[in-house]
Design goal:
The protein has about 325 residues and is an alpha/beta fold. The chain folds into two domains: about 1-140 and about 270-320, Isopropylmalate Dehydrogenase (3-Layer(aba) Sandwich); about 150-270, Isopropylmalate Dehydrogenase, CATH 3.40.718.10. Helices cover about 35% and strands about 15% of the residues. The chain contains ten helices and twelve strands. α1 links the parallel β1 (about 5-10) and β2 (about 35). α2 (about 85-100) crosses α3 (about 115-120). It is globular and about 65 Å long. The mean pLDDT is about 95. One of its GO terms (molecular function) is NAD binding. InterPro entries: PdxA, PdxA_fam. Its EC number is 1.1.1.262. Belongs to the PdxA family.
Length: about 325
C-alpha cells in the first residue's frame, strides 16, 4: 500500500487551507495525502475527517482527508493570529512523528509566518528548515529549489550579500556538495549526479581580475572532490549556466548565494518551483511561496506550487524505496 503524504496546515490565516482543498480537487487519488489542521479553519469546504492516515484510501477523491488538530482560536483570512502559533508548531511536530513512525511517506509543509510563531509561541528557529533539522536530530541540511526545468542549491541563504564571502567556507561548500550529491541519488534516482558549481564573482573571477575566491577556495575544493569521484563542473560563470543548452549538462546547480540560485528558477518556472530539504532522514517538500495574507480567502491563490510539492514528495518517497 502507498503511504500518504502528510500536509501541514501552515498558517491557517494564510492561503494554506484553500490551497490544500484546491490541490485535492486537482490531484484526486493520484497523489494520496492528508491535511493536518483544525477543520473549523476550512469553513464549509468539502472535507472528511479521518482518525489515522491509513483511512485516506477510504475518502472520496473530491473530499480533502483531514486529520483533526484543534487550535486555540479561529482563523480569519489575512489576519495573523498569534494565539494559533502553538498549534501550527504542534502540527509540524505531528507530521514528522507520523513519517518517523511509518504512517506517512513524506512531509509537505504549507507556509508559516515566522514572526507570528515567534510572537505567539516564542518560536526560536529561523524557519521550517531549521526546525525540521532539529526534530530530525541532524546538524546540517541543504535547501534545494526544484522543478522539471532546473534544480538549484544556494550554499549561503538568508544573509546579506556583503556577508557572503565570509560565510562561504570550504567546509560549508563541501558539505553542500556532498549532501546534494547524496540527495540526488536517494531522492531523485540520479545514479551519477552531475553538479555545476557557480563561481562567486562575475565571470568566475576571470583569473583573479574580479575576485580571488575561485582560485583560493572553490577550485581547490572541486579538484579534491573530483579526485574522490564526484562529477563537478566549474567554477562556472553564473551568467552562462542557465540557458537551455547549459542546463542539459547537469542535474543540479550549486550556487554561492541566494539570488544567484533563485532568480533563474523563479524566472523559468515561477509557479512550479518546489522547496526541498536535503539531508533529512525523511522526505520534506514545500511550495515556494509564503502565507500571502494579502490574497488569502479571496480565491486568487494558485495551487500550482503546492500541487508540484505534493507530487514531488510522493515521487521522492517512492525513490527512497527503490
Amino acid at each position: 500500500m502507498t503511504l500518504p503524504v502528510a500536509l501541514t496546515c501552515g498558517d491557517p490565516s494564510g492561503v494554506g487551507p484553500e490551497l490544500a482543498l484546491a490541490a485535492r480537487k486537482v490531484l484526486g487519488d493520484a497523489v494520496p495525502f492528508f491535511w493536518i489542521g483544525d477543520p473549523l479553519h476550512l469553513g464549509a469546504a468539502a472535507y472528511q475527517e479521518i482518525a489515522t492516515p491509513a483511512e485516506v484510501a477510504t475518502v472520496a477523491w473530491d473530499l480533502l482527508p483531514v486529520l483533526p488538530h484543534r487550535f486555540a482560536g479561529p482563523a480569519l483570512p489575512g489576519q495573523p493570529a498569534p494565539e494559533n502559533a502553538a498549534g501550527v508548531i504542534a502540527v509540524i511536530e505531528r507530521a514528522v512523528a507520523l513519517v518517523q513512525s511509518g504512517q506517512a511517506s513524506a512531509v509537505c509543509t504549507a507556509p508559516i509566518h515566522k514572526k507570528v510563531l515567534k510572537d505567539g509561541a516564542g518560536f526560536a528557529f529561523p524557519g521550517h528548515t531549521e526546525f525540521l533539522a532539529h526534530l530530525a536530530g541532524v546538524d546540517r541540511v541543504v535547501m534545494m529549489l526544484a522543478s522539471p526545468m532546473l534544480r538549484v542549491v544556494p550554499v549561503t541563504i538568508h544573509i546579506a550579500v556583503a556577508d557572503v564571502p565570509t560565510a562561504l567556507t570550504d567546509q560549508l561548500l563541501e558539505a553542500t556538495i556532498r549532501i546534494t550529491d547524496a540527495g540526488l541519488r536517494q531522492d531523485f534516482g540520479v545514479a551519477q549526479p552531475r553538479l555545476a558549481v557557480a563561481g562567486l564573482n562575475p565571470h568566475a573571477g576571470e583569473g583573479g581580475a574580479m575576485g580571488m575566491e575561485e582560485i583560493t577556495l572553490i577550485t581547490p575544493l572541486l579538484e579534491r572532490l573530483r579526485a574522490e569521484g564526484f562529477d563537478l563542473r566549474g567554477p562556472a560563470s553564473a551568467d552562462t549556466m542557465f540557458h537551455p543548452r547549459a542546463r542539459e549538462s547537469y542535474d543540479a546547480a550549486i550556487c554561492m548565494y541566494h539570488d544567484q540560485a533563485l532568480i533563474p528558477i523563479k524566472t523559468l518556472d515561477f509557479d512550479g518551483g518546489v522547496n526541498v530539504t536535503l539531508g533529512l532522514p525523511f522526505v520534506r517538500t514545500s511550495p515556494d511561496h509564503g502565507t500571502a495574507y494579502d490574497i488569502a480567502g479571496k480565491g486568487l491563490a494558485r495551487p500550482d506550487s503546492l500541487i508540484a510539492a505534493l507530487r514531488m514528495a510522493h515521487e521522492m518517497a517512492a525513490a527512497r524505496l527503490r
